[in-house]
Amino acid sequence: MTASALPDLADFPGVTAAEADGVPVLLAPRAGNIGAGIVFRVGSADETLAVSGITHLIEHLALRSQVLSEAHLNGQTRSDVTFFHVAGTEADAVRYLNDVCASLRDLPLGQLETEKDVLRSEGDGRNPGAGGRLRLNRHGARDHGLVGYGERGLDRITADEVRGWAATWFTRENAVAWITAEAVPEGLDLTLPSGRRMPPATVSDALHGTPAYLGGLRDGVALDALVTRGAAADVATHVIREVLHRDLRRDADIATAAEVSHDALDDERTRLSVMVQAEGRPDAAAGGLADALNGLRFHVAPDDLAAARAAAAEELAQVAAAPPADLLPSLAYRTVTGRPLEGPARNVARIEQVTADEVRGIARELWGSALWYGPGALDWAGIVAAPEWSHWTIHGRAFPRIDDPDVSLVLAADGVGLVTLRGTVVVRFASCVLLEAVPDGARALTGADGFRVMIEPTLYEGLDAETVAKHVDAHVPADVVVHLPARDPGDIPVPRPSTPEKPAKRQRTPEDAGPRSAPVTVALVAALWVVGVLVLGGGQVLLLELFDVDLTLGFLPLLALAWATFGLIRKRHPKERR
Fold this sequence. Notes:
There is one protein chain. This protein is α+β, with helices and mostly antiparallel strands. Helices cover 35% and strands 20% of the residues. It is built from 14 helices and 20 strands. Strand 9 (257-264) and strand 10 form a beta hairpin. The protein is flat, with a radius of gyration of 37 Å.
């Protein structure tokens, strides 16, 4: 790398740039211990599901040779970058950076399986949270969606793949270092393989129509949206924060916390995220958030815009007041990811130029691209359910599920599908990003869009392990196949036993009735009239004698007896039996 390729730091007095072994090094002195680090433009979003975890694995291997000392040292793998950093004496910093680069040139692959086990243990306690669920559903099983899957590739990553990944991504052209010193220390060796500066990770989209929602978040509501990158998105973030604090916390006391953030994904798009905590009142929080964001599409209050500008300016003032050495990690990150290195003064000028119209435009982009995660349906706000089923169908040989004939597994020439009465899940071989294979014949295929089809031969009529292996394995590239260990026989699923239904109680019908005798019917009718006349006549006499009431009913008693007679005849001699 030549001096002309070093970053322009004119907006950051006190920060200089040098070069060490082709790696740009940002410098700024400070009193006390030295802080140093190196950042590479590679993260989990650059992986595929089949090798997910490989960058984190290399980070661990690069730190394997570090010995215990009084220096504070660590590494971190994010979605877009990998950091190595240290704080200690100048000798500590030099030793640490030299050892990291030496390890990256020649990774201790003999420790590969040990470090895999370490990462598996770390992953067991890791919860991607609401953010991971949103990214998984927005992006699918690729790039920025991989954060929701965990490091599934650890079971199949090979030493050759690790070596190749390090040689491609951990290069001097794809790195920026920083040291809180006036000059590059003596003895620093940042020798790395040659490569190229990598562009931002792809930003995929697995959704078919937004705004959309996911249900099941019990303690609040969250959303993830993609908007145009720039000063307007910065100001809109502060406006939303102001509005939510007022509407959901101060005035309505619905939310216990409301967080709003934005993060640039590439040269054009920024992810804008909102998380509202509302224990006990998640539905109210969802309604309040929807009302607030919907309102900003049409009106931004001058006071809210002014408050947002002031908050943004205050943040930039804090940056301007910070010692230059404190800015080095951020400047290294911005340099390696291709962000512009604009100082606080220029950013304040940009913010002051953002209009209410531009903020409304960001609010409309947010609303239109938002993926919500809340307690339930949001159809009332014009927000549709996120896809639960594939948007295409599949045709091939069908195998009905033994214990549920309404479910079928379909093996087609171009993929596999699970067909139910509610919908179909399809994974096409061409878009399969992970095939998990078990020795007993079970297969699980995950598509790039995040849909997954699990094949258990024991559950489907006419299906066996040989048929599955022959149909699936030959059509999926070997570099996406993970061979899982054999399962305990008790873990292999079997069809649920059918529960015999209780016979329904038979309803009595006219055909079930025995023969009806006409003379008996005549006798019953006669008895009805005799009893009726006696009761009605006696009742009238009783009323007259006891209460001196002369009740004259006219023809009503006769009509009542006639109606009772008709009903008796119909019941004993229904039409079907006449």
